[in-house]
Design goal:
This is 1-phosphofructokinase. Its EC number is 2.7.1.56. Belongs to the carbohydrate kinase PfkB family. Keywords: ATP-binding, Kinase, Nucleotide-binding, Transferase. With about 325 residues, the chain is of the alpha/beta class. It has one domain: Ribokinase (UDP-N-acetylmuramoyl-L-alanine:D-glutamate ligase, 3-Layer(aba) Sandwich), CATH 3.40.1190. About 35% of the residues lie in helices and about 25% in strands. The chain has nine helices and 14 strands. Strands 5-4-1-8-9-10-11-12-13-14 form a ten-stranded mixed β-sheet, sandwiched between helices. It has a four-stranded mixed β-sheet with strand order 3-2-6-7. Strand 4, helix 2 and strand 5 form a beta-alpha-beta unit. The longest helix is centred in the C-terminal third of the chain and has 16 residues. The radius of gyration is 19 Å and the shape is globular. The chain starts with a strand and ends in an 18-residue tail after the last strand. The C terminus is likely disordered.
Length: about 325
């Protein structure tokens, strides 16, 4: 069983528009509403793979009630912590060429008792969990040390942690020694404080995160594949994608595939790559089902192409 934790979940509304023009009235060709947030997406992909999962998350207002209902319809138990505020709503505009424009709401501010109740909900629901996947940004009112405290508590209970966050929250949690961290290329660059120009640079950055406490680093490099760096070795995986429809949630799908396949070694990396490649071919933040996966198209190797340049967006100055 994989338990997910999403401190700042959302309802994700996606509109397919013919083009994005400032000041114009846009008529959507299609629209959808889905449960959102990185940990929520992991639960959705895990459930689609036939693995049992539950999602711990704060819920408030009618938006929170709808989010819980949508999760239940997908076979996911929502372990909700009541909030005084309302669950946020994010909006994505998708153009025909695949260009995405996202408007992410800040979300409600959690009080100290609400943040503590979220930790307690994780503790009470973690019995029997093979993994706890802690994912996404922290809401307002919650300090960067919150994830570190969650990792420490999980370890005291004998549960493994996979962490997908960034910035100060990631750096603070490394000292608690999570079993897996899953940054994307930009987050990896931010964690080490320098731009990454090649796959080799990404490998060195992942090794630095391991030196700071992470046992395993699974890093998504976008079109340049994924790397897995652990005590057992370093591997690179990639798959060709015919067309990108939406990259929203692709990293979350990758983490779900990795954990569902055991969370260790080349086979888990191949599952991560297959899930991520399938997700980018789906609309909005839809998560892949087994029929969407093409493991035959995935290549994993210990012969990592260290000199392979990363995308231009990763070689410039850090924001």
């Amino acid at each position: 069983m994989i338990l997910t934790v999403t401190p700042n979940p959302s309802l994700d509304r996606t509109y397919e528009v013919p083009g994005l023009r400032r000041g114009a009235v846009l008529r959507a060709a299609g629209d959808r509403v889905e449960p959102g947030g990185k940990g929520v997406n992991v639960s959705r992909a895990v459930a689609a793979a036939g693995v049992r999962t539950a999602a711990v998350l704060p819920l408030g207002g009618p938006e929170g009630a709808l989010l819980a209902r949508l999760l239940g319809e997908q076979g996911i138990e929502a372990v909700g912590v009541p909030l005084a505020g309302s669950t946020r709503v994010n909006v994505t505009l998708v153009e025909p060429d695949g260009t995405l424009t996202k408007v992410n709401a800040a979300g409600p501010e959690l009080t100290a008792p609400e943040a503590g109740a979220l930790l307690e909900a994780v503790r009470s629901r973690s019995a029997g969990a093979d993994w706890i996947a802690c994912c996404g940004s922290l809401p307002r009112g919650v300090t960067p040390a919150w994830y570190a405290e969650l990792v420490a508590r999980a370890h005291r209970a004998g549960t493994r942690i996979a962490l997908d966050t960034s910035g100060a929250a990631l750096l603070a949690a490394l000292a608690a020694r999570p079993e897996v961290v899953k940054p994307n290329a930009e987050e990896l660059a931010g964690a080490v404080g320098r731009p990454l120009a090649t796959v080799g640079d990404a490998v060195k950055a992942a090794e630095e995160l391991r030196a700071r406490g992470a046992a395993t680093v699974l890093a998504s490099l976008g079109a340049d594949g994924q790397i897995l760096v652990s005590e057992a070795g370093t591997y690179w995986g990639h798959a060709r994608v015919a067309a990108v429809r939406s990259n929203v949630g692709a990293g979350d799908a990758s983490l779900a595939g990795f954990l569902a396949e055991g969370g260790n070694g080349p086979a888990a990396l191949a599952a991560a790559v297959a899930h991520g490649a399938a997700a980018v071919g789906l609309p909005g933040s839809a998560m892949p089902v087994p029929a969407d996966l093409d493991l035959a198209a995935v290549v994993t190797t210990a012969d990592v192409p260290l000199d392979r340049p990363l995308g231009d967006a990763l070689t410039g100055p850090l924001p």
